[in-house]
Design a protein that fits this description.
The protein is built from 9 helices and 8 strands. By secondary structure, it is an alpha/beta fold. The protein has one domain: Thiamin diphosphate (ThDP)-binding fold, Pyr/PP domains (Rossmann fold), CATH 3.40.50.970. The protein is globular, with a radius of gyration of 19 Å.
Length: about 280
């Protein structure tokens, strides 16, 4: 687990900022924010030992609504920012909040390598299969036949499968949650934060404005019928046949986290220049 192990008596409200969230009424991200604060309280983490990092998008507003250290970065670069923070401040608990556009489109390359490096941080992606902030364009996880103003009749392109990509790329913990179940989501977030290495949590978070059909998700999600596994082969078979609505911890690996050495003796610039002399 990132950060100190001493548990403090905390309440979810201790982690909320004074800013009022700005999301559409009914947005699933309200419940995800609730799950964040409940998970932090469950772990008893001092707010000054938590850093919440984000990129751009509806979901990326979350750092402003928490009473923790936060960084609202540029589009798709949240994982790079968080990795730099974690390796230089390993004492901090680092959480990254993202969405399917920010995380899988412009941020897709960072996603692959964050899984591969296995730095001890938690990546939470709120997936609504649409670009909500920019008015409803298809995202990497949008169904190929979903009709939008920009893509009449759908894109015809197979959707990105985040959990399969995460497993193949080396993520150490993989889970899926539903925003409409904030207590269960909080429990899984707490498990993800505790687990060493790179933890990836997909949260199905409906966009009621541009994807009103996603209101049906509450009837479609279900607890996964098989227990979590630490076997990559079993996890791969399970994820490749998954319909996207099985909820729970799906994979829990045992790869040691990457933590580069920091500090040490400095090197004078003149010494470095010698290596480049002709």
């Amino acid at each position: 687990m990132s950060g100190p192990t001493t548990r403090h008596a905390c309440k979810p409200g201790d982690y909320k900022s004074e800013l009022k969230p700005i999301w559409c009424p009914g947005c699933g991200d309200y419940h995800v924010l609730m799950s964040f604060t409940r998970a932090f309280a469950q772990l008893g983490l001092p707010s000054e030992n938590i850093a919440v990092v984000s990129g751009i998008g509806c979901s990326s507003r979350i750092p402003a609504y928490t009473n923790c250290y936060g960084f609202h970065g540029v589009h798709g670069r949240s994982l790079a920012l968080a990795a730099g923070l974690k390796v230089t401040r390993p004492d901090l608990t680092v959480i990254v909040a993202s969405g399917d556009g920010d995380g899988y489109s412009i941020g897709g390359n960072h996603f692959l390598h964050a899984c591969r490096r296995n730095i001890d941080m938690t990546y939470v992606v709120m997936d609504n299969r649409i670009y909500g902030m920019t008015k409803g364009q298809p995202s990497p996880t949008t169904e190929p036949e979903f009709d939008t103003a920009l893509t009449p009749g759908g894109t015809g392109v197979a959707p990105f499968h985040p959990l399969v990509v995460a497993l193949a790329s080396g993520a150490n913990f993989i889970a899926r949650c539903f925003s409409g179940a904030p207590n269960e989501t909080a429990d899984i977030l707490a498990e993800a934060i505790r687990h060493p290495g790179f933890s990836f949590v997909e949260v199905l978070s409906p966009c009621v404005t541009f994807r009103p059909d996603e209101k049906d998700w509450k009837e479609m999600v279900r607890p996964a019928s098989v227990p979590e596994t630490s076997d990559q082969g079993k996890a791969a078979r399970r994820l490749m046949t998954d319909d996207g609505f099985n909820i729970g911890i799906l994979y829990r690996g045992h790869r040691p986290p990457l933590q580069p050495a920091i500090g040490g003796a400095g090197v004078e610039l003149s010494e470095l220049e010698k290596d480049f002399e002709l």
